[in-house]
Amino acid sequence: MREPAFWHRPPSWSSRLLMPLGALYGAVAGLRMQRQGLDAGIPVVCVGNYHTGGAGKTPAVLALTKLLRDLDETPVVLSRGYGGRLRGPIMVDPKRHAAADVGDEPLMLARTVPVVVARDRRGGVALARSQGASVILMDDGFQNPAIAKDASLIVIDSSRGLGNACVFPAGPLRAPLDQQLARTDALIVIGDGAAAKAVAAGIATRGRPVLSAHLKPNDASLDALAGKRVLAFAGIGDPARFFRTLRTGGIEVVRARAFADHHPFSHGEIETLIAEATREALTLVTTEKDLARLRQGGELPSWAKAIVPFAVTLEFDDAAGLRKFVTERLFQAREKKYRANP
Question: What is the edge-to-edge ordering of all strands in the sheet holding 75-79?
Answer without folding.
Answer: 90-91, 115-117, 75-79, 135-139, 44-48, 151-157, 186-190, 210-217, 312-316
